[in-house]
Protein 1
Amino acid sequence: MVKKPQEPREEVLASMEKGALLNSTRHGGKADVGAVIGRALAEFPDLRSDPAQVAKAAQALVKQVNSMSLSQQEALLSQKYPGAEQPVQKEGRVGLPPLPNAVKGKAAFRLPPEPSGFMTVGHAMAFTINFLYRQEYDGELWLRFEDTNPRKVEPRYYESFRSGSKWLGVEWDHEKNVSDDIETIYAHGRRLLEEGKAYACSCDADKVKKLRFEGKACEHRDSPADANLRVWVELLAKKHKEGDYVIRFKGDMQNVNYSLRDTNIFRVIDHPHPLTGEKYSLWPTYDLANAVEDEICGITHILRSSEFRNELQQLLREALGLRAPEVIQFSRFNFKGTPVSKRLLRPLVEQKLVSGWDDPRMPTVEGLKRRGVLPQAIRDFTLQVGYTKTEHEYDWSILLSINRKLLDPVSKRLFFVPDPVELSVKGAPERKVTIPYHPQNDLGSRTIQTAGRFYIAGGDLKAIKEGSVFRLMDLYNVKLTSAGPTPTAEYAGDELLEGTRKFQWATPARVEVKVLAPDVLFDEKGEFNRDSLKEVRGYVEEAFTKLKAGDIVQFPRFGFCRLDSPGTMVLSA
């Protein structure tokens, strides 16, 4: 009698539901079946004996979760699994844990960006982790561009990672492009064909997808090696168009992970490469290229986010007789309201919803630089939060808080008056006042000539009543005599009065500026936030004219701002 498969037990279903909700809320409201299955098998290894039931349960849960709106998913996650979205904090330690099987002086790490977009804060954090380990273990670090899709890569993207890494203080020992080693990768691909571990397939994509789902092999799987090699030679000679053939690695067609069912390892891309031109049209996929390159570079430890699956690379290493590096995977560094995935960021640029990859709302290194985020803030933030396999989102406020602490002792203060209102002060003495740029640290000073005409913030004026006494910061007291359309005041002495409000001010020698205030790109519904970049106009004191592009100052009670271009500041924190 055949034993009937059992439904996964309750704790398994709960874990899978939590995993589906976590995955969906981190990826725009759509959970991935493979990620849910992988999480369940990792948490409950005994389930590997009945993968069919795991897959069936995961598909049902993902279908149910994906039918909800993002807000419904978040509410259910918070209600049923409170705290699941929070990172696991490591008590009593700030920093990175020791690496398994790492030998000082013999460790090798790699930074493997795909130059298909600009470097993001997620890359910056992952690069920082690898660099810090390279320093700790006196190892080697490779900057290796995974440029095997010529349709996506552009020269400016390579440079973004080079300049971004230098800005972070990340130093690498070797640099290369995977496209440099295409002939070596071809040699490994040919060997897989010769040994019957791969085959040439001309099935269309829909057919392959259907057969994978059904766990069935196509008619090409059993083609003899000489027939596959004949197609291989024709592919290298560019005798076939894009889509005519792919080279597929022989996997297990019953594997619970559909992506391991005879996956593609080479495909034709009819597009010139920015570095190799039209010399090649047959390109390896990411997993094969990585397996080979890690061997070439002598990589001992791979630290990367968990959206990259290691199973296929390990199968390819075994098939090719290559070493198996230690793999440490962690969740992607997600930020609330701002995805770091180039797949989600690129449409914003293409649709001109943002001004470019360096828009201060973008989580790119260029965007963060324009916003005035310091490299040390990213490093300190990375060390503070560490890394974990638990999927979660960070709040920008944590990074910006660290950035403020770094900026505070080194940033000059300047008076800024948003929504300015002119104020005449009767009886005001003419003064030439010298005010330090910083209340504690010696950052110099500026001298301002006053003569009884000022501008104060419209919001400050609305906060007081006629007859109220307030102080023009670092100058003297005034009493508001009229709050009408043309407000007036009178001089009220120099003595510091306890409890008196202090307002920033500007003289007629002011400079008009606008401050760009960036916010998160997506709202709670996952829709583009049309109010993600606000503009605040106002006056700043004359000393502003001495600033250079890139200088960061603090406008008291407003925030730290970076001079982006003449007359334009960007709010940092």
Protein 2
Amino acid sequence: MGFHTGGWWGFLSASAERPRVTWPLLRRVLKYARPYRWNIVAMLIIILFNTGLTLLTPLILRTLIDQTIPQKNLNQLIWLALALLLIPALGGVMAVLQRRLNVAVGEGVIYDLRVALYSRLQRMSLRFFTNTRVGELMSRLNNDVVGAQNAISNTIVGIATNLVQATAVTLVMLSLEWRLTLISVMILPLFVLVARRMGMRLREIARQAMDLNAQMNAMMNETLNIGGALLVKLFGRMHLEVERFQNRAQAVRDIGVRRAVVGMTFFVIVGLISAVGTALVYGVGGYLVIQGVFTVGTIVAFGAYLTSLYSALQGLANAPVEFATSVVSFERVFEVIDLPAEIQEKPDAITIHQARGELVFEDVTFRYDPKSVPLLREVERHGQIHNVTAVLSGESPRSKLNNARRLEVKEQETHEEEVEESESEFFTRSQARLDALDHISFRVEPGQLVALVGPSGAGKTTLTYLIPRLYDPTSGRILLDGYDLRDITLDSLSAQIGMVTQETHLFHDTIRTNLLYARLDAAQEELEAACKAANIHDFIQGLPDGYDTIVGERGYRLSGGEKQRLALARVILKDPRILVLDEATSHLDSESEALIQEALKRVMAGRTSIVIAHRLSTILAADQIVVMNRGRIVERGAHHELLAQGGLYATLYDTQFRREEMKI
């Protein structure tokens, strides 16, 4: 007999956990089917048509056996034989058309969900991404989206198909012979009993298999990306990683063999049970034929209908769990779509076309509080794998969860520069604190250069992140040309601000594409002018493919200085009114540093610039030096004024900048 390979899942609904489906959730799911309602209606019509076709074949066989062959009706034999050929051919055409409609619905739902998810994620704040695993977001965009579309394109269609088929077959069987129909249905409790016992075992093996596959895939992802591969080579752990991978691949192999053997055993037992039903039907039916109650053709038709009936009933038993699992995927997708954006744009926000560049911080306080931002919750994927947190250590799911919670406690430090000990006793006090910024107030006039200095973890990077609204202040406000940043449209604010972070990010694409990210319509001449200003044009021209050179994963094919100069060229191409720079040149060679310093002078000319200063030359050129410590502004003024005060700046100068001045 023919049975669905996944049918055993359905019999677990009484013993295994079942996801909860609510009417509001179901109503919202069905909204995603609304744009494709005519496709679904067409599929239902085809289902009815195909079901009618499948009912004809057993009846034709009965006619052949009972009438055509005994009566030696050659003309009827030819027509019935042609009908037996025409029915599967027509059914095949209808099946292809149904598949076409089904795929159109499924892929359309996937498209709608992915675009909605991606659009929402693009509007989430930086804090959301620092508190959310990338793998979890990828799971929502891939696994859960595909799982969600199954509810509409596969599960609903499957339920309709099996329901129509089971109803129609049962009615036809009852019309042919009610006693054989009762015998056919009476065998179903045996299916349920065996499937529940074997199914629980299979489900556990399936979960183990998916978990082991996830661990193997996670290890491959961690050790085969550019950072992981570099770490493995630097520590000479190639043989260790191969051994680890062998162990994980072996576990996947062994569980695969076990799963296949148990699964085949299950289906052998199911086949034997179906054989019992078939034997009873033919045994009782044969006796009734001998007694002259009905014909041989009737019992042959019954055998054909029996296969369709068992298949349809098994599919219907499987449908509730399948549908509920798909709806849970919808729930996970909706959770992201419904997340409120922390950085919101007011309905009446103003658009700034050309800012003057005046920045004012008014009593700004900011705190990294994970609880204040809407985050994704852990949702159990029924029948799917647990999240894999530990890749190499093989921790248990509970310890993984505990470790993840402990890591959240370090939220403050992950948003700041690494907290380091300094040579000076002034920095022996830890920078760890509750408020990242504490009542910050200062003004930057249009065109001014402000240098931010202070020990690592003092709050400099956090302060710069507030300017383009990567975060919003916990209290206080920041004004641009007299307007609160929260009153300005996000797009126009972004257009006024150019930012170069200490860690330059480049896409795995060409130099041209990475530069055009600043301005999509820039001409080649403009690209070259920006690169010349950033002292990178000659280097690009010397490459074999010039501006069409692929920079590699995260720009790994370029040096630190080259990446920074490309980042500067990208900002120059954007031509912002306000420039925010993390002037990280301390780890570059002298030639790269000189080129970047020269480029910085051109970039900052005529613009309001906020620079986290690492070099004395930038500090000396600043109109205003803001000295920060533990989230507060402790000193402010010109270089000579701050030296005279003998405070934190003087200490920084003695420990970090004096040797540079001596070189000058």
Protein 3
Amino acid sequence: MKRTLRLCVPALFAALLLSQSAPDTAIRGFSPQHAAAERELEKKLQAVPQADRIRDAMKFMSEEPHHAGHPNSKRVAEYILAKYKSWGLDAHLEEFEALMPYPKERSVEMTAPTHYRMQLKEPVISEDKDSSDAEQLPTFNAYSADGDVTAQVVYVNYGRPEDYDELARLQVDVKGKIVLARYGASWRGIKPKVAHEHGAVGCIIYSDPRDDGYERGDVYPEGPYRPEQGVQRGSVMDMPTYPGDPLTPGWAGEKGGRKLTRAESKTLMKIPVLPVSYGDALPILKELRGPVVPEAWKGALPTTYHTGPGPAVVHMHLAFDWQLRPLFDVIVRIPGKDFPNDWVVRGNHHDAWVNGADDPLSGQSAMLEEAHAFAELLKTGWRPRRTIIIASWDGEEWGLLGSTEWAEKHAAELDKGGVFYLNSDTTAKGRLGAGGSHILERFINELERDVNDPNSGKSLLAMNRERPIGPPEGLGPATGGGGRGGRGGQDAADRDRKDLRIGALGSGSDYTPFLQHLGVPSANFGFGGDGGNSAGIYHSIYDSFTWYTKFSDSTFIYGRTLAQASATAVLRMADADVIPYEFGDFAETAGRYVDEVERLPRDSSAPALDFAPLKDGITALKKSAADYETALGSADLSRAGASAALDAALLHVERSLLGKGLPRREWYRHRIYAPGFYTGYGVKTLPGVREAIEQKNWAEAKAQIVETAAALTAMAKAIDDSARLLH
């Protein structure tokens, strides 16, 4: 029988009095009496993480290269598992397998007008013992095609679609050519993808010192930036189509399970692609002629930048072993006593391209301390109301493999009971970058209000409110910024907004399958912005314990703060009387997105588009959000928290934004957030509508407006259903 919750007058008066007199100390989703107990638990929880233990864990795990599929990756997983078990936690390994081809042959040489054979090798630096470690993966791009090609070279800047538009204006064609692109401005996998679409037969990606080398500051080991022969490894899987094992889209990759053939996979690159250093790129750039490039295309190397084609001619030869290899996710489960089927999931990956002190072990080491803190709390007799799962993912670097396979395996449980997914990846020092579902914006602001910066003593929220007016701060390639969970730009009006804005999530880390495939409200945390930019050693042999302790969070006090903040977020979500989503911030932000797509430029031949359905959806959302706040403010939360029906209704709110899938990439189902088809990491909000307009597909734009508006209306109804259960 359906049970409605009635509120007596004294309880109503107390709730209203609390909402008026103590807005800065209340904890959303908790009754006053339970909030007091929660704060006591949080004090105990936050006292456990220690900087020295975070340092020790990073030092051990970064001692050897541990790329996914290698025995050292399993060794790191087993170390994490042993730590969890030593604290008394229920932990186990979940094994999957995925296509992970290692390189067999790599050679690139310029054959005309002069001869140069690329080194394709990062040199040992005497100050860093790990730079000489055995078993380092060579410099390569995962999921490149095999190939043996010889062609003239064309320099294509960052290799984005708009760069090819500029080449067309300059009457430069890349068909049948090898393109030379610089890292930056878009995800690396976009560069060979777009090159292939324009007829190129190969792609070389190099790191220009203007972006992450000597133009930015001193190079390693004197400074944090990329040295002359430093190279950024990385996957070029077509992740905007789908992440995870290329052979098992939509289902878990397990031994003996169904697999596509390589020919059937939609995410493997069609042309050979290889990353190189700026030391190896310079000889080619010096031999290019053709038009001088536009000012914005110029890097910092000592040569005049020309587009080509040629006369530089390059021969590329690449071959890979195309093997299936194992993945080892480490999973902790702390059962919930009231709602065991409702899951609060915390994750960070453990695999690295080489030693990976910064990426990912800065975040993974902090997460170990969070697990330790929960283990200590369990010893006091505490049990969470909802189940807590702590996951150390494998294979993230290859394309979110471990998290995607796990989420696809547990899709039914997550669809029914996924409350919250909290991710971290790299973390450094500075301000907390936070991005995520905007129904979490109030929750994140309250969390930042209640955790202090370790240097200034101010709250994390106060530190973020002091950010300069302007574009987003750089938080490093795996922490914040374009789509990976950093703060968005701040304007003057934002400073007076009740809740500080959080960024929207694109892709590039393990929240993607939870949010954009399954509709689980998700967030990504990581500190950054205070020097020590890791872009210069990102995915290189120089991402080492030596680099991290010299140039990043050397005292590990921000790692400790990340552990405190993340553990507190998980505790609040797991123990709240009422799941602490808030919908007004989402409605306001989604309204901004609608205004943005309406203002997107269209040429004079474009038909009129009717945005009224989207605006009507936003209007309905704002009303539903306000009604929900009224209901929440007058409810007895200690009684409402006993309602399984209310939990279920709230879990349906974000799920209502899922559709049948975006055009040409059905795996991505979220109507509000997705990685851009041609940006990769960078988020596209209202992606179906926005990308159809950008690509001048007017029929598709009209259809996507209707479908997105229907999702907004469905969300408003789900909020209304939740409000009725509060009354």
Protein 4
Amino acid sequence: MDLLYNYLITNSLRDTLRKGALHETVDKMLHLLKENTKAEYIAITVWDTDKNIPYLHKYISDDGLKIIPGKPGFSPLGVCMLEKKPVRGKFEEFPRAASYLSKVIGEVLCLPIEIPEPNLIGAIGIGRKKGREPFSEWDDATLQIASNILSAIISIRILQDLLDKERKILAGLLWLIETVMTVSNPKLMYTNILQIMSRLFKAEYALLGKVHLERKIIEPISYLGLEKPNIIPFGKGMLGTCAAENKIKFFRSYPMDRVPEGYERDAQKVGCAFVAPVNVQGKLEFVLAIARTKHKEPFSTVDYYFFHLFYKILSLVFSIQKIEEEKEKFAKLKSRIEKLDSVGTLAGGIAHDFNNIINVIMGYAQIGMETSEDEEIKQFFEHILKQCHRAAELTSKILLISREDFQVTGTVDLKALLQDAMVILERTLPENIEIILEDDGKGPYLVKGEPSQINTMIFNLASNAKDAMPYGGRLTFRLKKSKPPTGMDSEGSVIVLEVEDTGKGIPEDQTERIFDPFFTTKDPGKGTGLGLSQVYRTVSNMGGLIDVKSVEEQGTTFTIYIPEASLH
């Protein structure tokens, strides 16, 4: 007993801290135990219940008899680890005991080994040949000391493994954060993220998908190890299931009853997987998945812990990145407003002077029509008068842009205005353009504004969409309530109006200028460049903001944020 106790104090813990010394330390412990108890058979088994395999198994037998690992519930050792309490008696009396061992082993004594890792259970046992005397209290106490020592050294080894992995994971986290915050190319950033995850978790497959909530689909934007992936509907496969439930998922194997179209071959190869939703500022934006091939060692509980940490950090970093992008975007919006104000003031001055000139021309043209007796000359004056009226309409639009006294007093329901506008648009827009009105069901959508100005705004946006879809398409008006975006000076909630078309889009180098007066992306003679300027002025005067996102040959979305008004 003294020798065993001295080993605990001087050697076992020190030896265990040396990398790779666990098995060597356990062997020494078993030989010391044999020496102190005079047992012919000694065995220790630690079982991984998550993987259903032995984490550790060692034994000594005097006659060279093989002692197989004690599965939970099988043999004295298995019963002891499963019930986590001492076991004592004849070997042959225990359920499912190995018959070849029952013939030679008589008295057995087993004690559980306490291990802090939840998926590991263990026990250590000693046995004597049939016909020998039972174990004494001294043997019981000796085995108890051995059990405590083994519990300590196995726990230290597990902690050591965890710390080694933690160092790698923390290095990976720093790499991940640096990648997201410094790599400006999105495609490269997404690829780097998947490579980091694949290396750290030894995963052969990785996929990052962009979530489209309104369409309930996931668009793969970066992947490793897979064939070119297709769109994934919500509820289908691993990613679709995760997105539908918006919570982290662990799959032991691919759910073959939910394989999305085009993933049949990959599904046959994929084994266990982690899939997690990546929420950006509280909204589901991405789904991240890593997986190993079949027949490879499954992910452990430690892997789960760190993957959980990874996707949470990724959500946070993406949110920070989005806030920074929004700050930059709204700084540009503020600069644009200041520029529009100065341009509007200049345009207003020119328009007033131009109006005076037009009025003189119109006066002379009117006199010419009334006094001329030649019908051909009268027609010339009539053409002059018509062109003057057109010029007057143009200057009225310019004056509208420059007005600073636009008063917003009335409270209107934006949905009701849209429904009325839809009736007119369905009659005036080409039949090959489908018009859709959607909302989040949280109405009424009340804003303060002048109905005529809001209608003009709606028709201007619809007209732009029509011109962008010469061969037809889909025009969607979408209403919802939301928190104010970063950079908007509003204390309450806002009404968000999205106007989305499936047209030819706007070149990236032109999106910064589309709200400027007289700037147009249309062909010469097909636009004045004042429609979107009027829209911008109307939104600004209502205390709102407008943003645009466009992808060439895919479409354009105008997003308008207007402070919500109350009925009182």
